[in-house]
Write a structure and sequence with these properties.
Mean pLDDT of chain A: 93
Low-confidence stretches of chain B: 343-347
Strand order of the largest sheet of chain B: 6-7-8-9-10
Helix content of chain B: 25-40%
Strand order of the largest sheet of chain A: 3-4-5
Shape of chain B: globular
Distance between the termini of chain A: 62 Å
Number of strands of chain A: 5
CATH topology of the largest domain in chain A: GMP Synthetase, Chain A, domain 3
Structural class of chain B: alpha/beta
Oligomer: heterodimer
Radius of gyration of chain B: 19 Å
Strand content of chain B: 5-15%
Distance between the termini of chain B: 43 Å
CATH architecture of the largest domain in chain A: 2-Layer Sandwich
Low-confidence stretches of chain A: 1-6, 250-255
Radius of gyration of chain A: 21 Å
Number of helices of chain A: 8
Shape of chain A: elongated
Structural class of chain A: mainly alpha
Number of domains of chain B: 2
Chain lengths: ~260, ~350
């Protein structure tokens, strides 16, 4: 006999917390902060979530990854019933939504276009996110100590970093790729934890810098495109401090309907 | 030509299109999704006064193109880089006949580059030879995320792509413009990765590879391969308009490019009709790297002149008035290094 009164029901806060764990791998941010969650409907224990992206032509592999991660995260909620996740307005919406509904998996969804999995793709972007996070703290350090030679940043260790948002962000990115967090660990390392000799440091830092510029630039452009595409979606976006510019939150191009007047 | 504060700039717009995305040319919903994506780029990154109506955006025609570029836009010479997108549009997105005829009627103003799809196999090779016989182009624009039946993407390292590049070499088609897109086979990998360009640049050292959008959204991968390959160049299409809304980001893109590939291998482009050259040229001449970005040196007038036109003019053999020319700079401190060591796939 089922005791209905003891059953947990899923709340909007539960759904939000679950979706907070879904990361856009390219932009290194939760889909909730990016405004990619279009709607959440809870009917009894059943949850329906619609996702939206900045363009119809966002990469289908990343689109699928976020949508399937969302379904997994929601399905893991205690007491949840039927979970439906749908991606709206994408060139592969029909394909991806059918794959999600059938729990067909990546290969089952994309068929001949898929080889084995998206694990390597995900790892590539976790490494890039780590590289960018390391560059942020080191460039911060260089700017605060103008006399510090660039080649010296190769010997900076975690214990040399001050507390704060960028340091915490680095520690999270290190954990995500399995790097240690002991205070004596070097900051400027590759994804396997190897440091650089002093003559290699300037170029390693420059490569890291181009990675950081790229991720921050893409993140803000994608956010802006979402605001242009979906009126009012800016209200669903959390500010991104990394790479922010004055125009990012004051860009009020009037909404234009993309139809020809008849 | 654009003149300001006593300095004159020769302008080559290295990436323009004459497209037709009107409803009667849409083959399916993807045609509309594609132009809508462009339109969102346009209205997201343009100054408000430069935003066109959606109807204007769908098709411009030759007359308006000539006015926007050469009467209003300070452009001395522009190069067509057409995207075929035949799966989305009945007569394709870029209008081959119209663009070629416009270029033929205005040879000192316009250069027509063509395109090919290596998945067309032997038939496509015959077509490439026939097209070249008819149009005598020296460059092609390749879009790796072009859809083609069951396939929605290809790589420059595909065996058939090599066959086509070998044919380009024979025909004297030396300028290979590459635009990476979101689909590739298999989808397991990052479709925007430019490692395949690294490989072909090493194998075809007599061809120039111009990476459009300077590799965006993978600026970092592009900088790394371009610094190692002396025949890899960066086109600023889509990067330019960030100058207006996101000037710090644009400054950093430029700063990185100047560090990694140097001032002689960067090309200005409006990506007309996504944007128009007038405001881009005006703002770029006035643009300066913010002083607090101390990791970059200020932009020089000579660098701006090269980027705005002299670099592309050199590659395409476009005649530049003697008083507007400049000598080349030394190589960057990062390279070009040993091309044999240039293999991004192992990094």
């Amino acid at each position: 006999m089922t005791v209905l009164t003891d059953r947990q029901t899923v709340s909007r806060a539960d759904v939000r917390r679950a979706l907070d764990t879904v990361i856009d791998p390219e932009l290194d941010e939760p889909v909730t902060d990016l405004g990619f969650v279009r709607s959440v409907d809870i009917d009894g224990d059943d949850v329906t979530v619609h996702l939206r992206l900045p363009t119809s032509f966002c990469s289908p592999n990343f689109a699928y990854l976020m949508a399937s991660d969302a379904k997994d995260a929601l399905s893991a909620l205690d007491g949840v019933g039927v979970v439906v996740v749908e991606l709206d307005d994408h060139h592969d919406s029909a394909l991806i939504n059918a794959g999600l509904a059938a729990d067909a998996g990546y290969v089952g969804t994309f068929g001949h276009e898929a080889e084995s999995s998206l694990d390597e793709l995900r790892m590539t972007f976790r490494r890039k996110a780590h590289t960018a996070a390391a560059e942020r703290v080191l460039t911060e350090l260089l700017r605060s100590k103008p006399t510090l030679p660039e080649s010296m940043v190769g010997s900076v260790r975690l214990r040399h970093l001050g507390p704060g948002r960028t340091t915490e962000a680095l520690l999270r990115r290190r954990e995500a790729i399995g790097l240690p967090d002991d205070p004596d660990a070097l900051v400027l390392v590759d994804h396997e934890g190897r440091g650089y000799s002093p003559d290699e440091v300037p170029m390693a830092l420059r490569r890291a810098r181009s990675t950081r510029i790229s991720i921050d630039g893409n993140a803000h452009f994608c956010r802006g495109l979402l605001r242009t595409r979906y009126e009012g979606s800016g209200a669903d976006q959390a500010p991104r401090p990394d790479g922010a510019e004055p125009a990012d939150h004051h860009h009020l191009i009037p909404v234009t309907v993309k139809e020809i007047p008849r | 030509m654009y003149t300001k504060d006593g300095e004159s700039y020769f302008i080559v717009d290295a990436h323009i299109a004459l497209w037709d995305a009107r409803p009667e040319n849409l083959r399916n919903e993807h045609g509309k999704q594609f132009i809508d994506c462009f339109y969102d780029y346009h209205r997201n990154l343009s100054p408000e006064a430069e935003v066109w109506s959606y109807e204007d955006y769908l098709y411009q025609g030759g007359q308006r193109l000539m006015k926007d570029l050469f009467e209003d836009g300070y452009v001395d010479h522009a190069i067509f880089q057409p995207a075929a997108l035949t799966e989305f549009y009945n007569t394709g997105f870029g209008q081959t006949k119209e663009a070629y005829e416009l270029a033929a009627a205005n040879p000192t103003r316009l250069t027509y580059n063509h395109n090919f799809d290596p998945r067309n196999g032997e038939q496509g090779l015959d077509q490439l030879r026939a097209d070249h016989e008819a149009m005598k182009f020296t460059g092609v624009k390749l879009y790796t995320a072009e859809w083609h039946g069951e396939s929605r993407g290809w790589k420059l390292t595909d065996p058939w792509a090599y066959r086509y590049l070998e044919e380009c070499r024979k025909l004297g088609v030396t300028n290979i413009h590459v635009h990476k897109g979101p689909t590739i086979r298999p989808l397991d990998r990052d479709a925007f990765d430019v490692a395949d360009i690294d490989a072909v640049a090493t194998d075809f050292t007599d061809l120039n590879f111009i990476v459009e959008h300077v590799g965006l959204p993978r600026l970092e991968d592009f900088c790394w391969i371009a610094t190692q390959e002396p025949n890899v160049y960066g086109g600023l299409a889509v990067a330019m308009p960030f100058m207006h809304t996101r000037p710090r980001y644009f400054a950093q893109i430029l700063g990185e490019l100047l560090y990694w590939i140097g001032e002689d291998r960067i090309f200005f482009s409006s990506d007309y009709a996504i944007w128009t050259p007038k405001w881009l040229v005006e703002q770029f001449v006035d643009f300066q790297i913010p002083a607090d970005l101390t990791e970059y040196a200020p932009l020089t007038t000579a660098q701006k002149k090269k980027i705005l036109g002299l670099n592309a003019a050199k590659m395409y053999g476009i005649e530049v008035p003697a008083e507007l020319r400049l000598p080349e700079a030394d190589t960057t401190e990062t390279g070009p290094r040993d091309p044999a060591a240039a293999d991004l796939a192992t990094v």
